[in-house]
Amino acid sequence: MVTQDEDFLSLFAAHTDHAGIVYCKPGKCSIGQMVEMLILMYEVYAPEEMVGRIEYM
User: What is the Cα–Cα distance from 47 to 49, expressed in whole angstroms?
Assistant: First the structure.
């Protein structure tokens, strides 16, 4: 999941099972920058490596 909604960070804090969260603070990155970072994450991480993990942009 890719989000700018801080509410989803509570899933991580509560140790709730999730497939992985990528969080970007609103206004920090342009859409183009977000896409570039997501492509890089796709190339670096296998899907199973993102399970239960949070990545900050």
Answer: 5
Check if the beta carbon of residue 12 is closer than 8 Å to that of residue 54. yes
Place of tokens 């989803």: 8
How far apart CA 56 and CA 21 sit, in angstroms, is: 8
Would you call 37 exposed, middle or buried from its count of C-beta atoms within 10 A (0-12, 13-18, 19+)? middle
Gap between the Cα atoms of 13 and 52, Å rounded: 10
| pLDDT tens, residue by residue, 18-54 | 888 999 999 999 999 999 999 999 999 999 999 988 9
Check residue 13 and report its DSSP letter: H
